[in-house]
Design a protein that fits this description.
InterPro entries: Ig-like_dom, Ig-like_dom_sf, Ig-like_fold, Ig_V-set, T-cell_Activation_Regulation. This protein is mainly β. The chain has a domain at 25-114: Immunoglobulins (Immunoglobulin-like). It is built from no helices and 10 strands.
Length: 131
């Protein structure tokens, strides 16, 4: 069975909107932040409660805080976070991965910042996306 992805990306701090449509098994949820002094990256989804999709703190993953359904299925696109790239790679995408994801960063010198990313997965449906 093929998954078809309709990805709408909205960064509230920059009023930025982008959409795409493709058949996938892995997907990258884009998030960029100011690149200086990032000490924590947290990817979460509201329906997961206190557990997160991914927690990366002080250059290490924190598996104890991760929801079991994302174990061994997520990674950062660039663990060095060059140019503020804190995008999430989600592997072996499932229909249950549908949801609104939040990318939150914490820096040494500034308060935290959040970005919302909506991931909508449609199973076996051919659609045309018009923006």
């Amino acid at each position: 069975t093929d998954f078809y992805l309709s990805l709408f990306h909205f960064q509230s701090s920059q009023n930025y909107f982008r959409g795409c449509f493709l058949s996938i098994s892995n997907v990258t949820l884009t998030c960029r932040a100011p690149s200086n002094n990032i000490i924590v990256v947290e990817w979460s989804r509201a329906d997961l409660g206190k557990e997160c999709v991914l927690m990366y703190r002080d250059e290490l993953f924190v598996p104890d805080e991760q929801h079991p359904s994302f174990k061994n299925r997520v990674d950062l696109q660039d663990r060095q976070m060059k140019d503020g790239d804190v995008s999430l790679i989600l592997k072996n995408v499932m229909i249950s991965d549908t949801g609104t994801y939040e990318c939150r960063i914490f820096r040494k010198t500034n308060p935290s910042r959040s970005f919302l990313v909506l991931l909508l997965l449609l199973l076996g449906v051919n659609l045309e996306l018009i923006l």
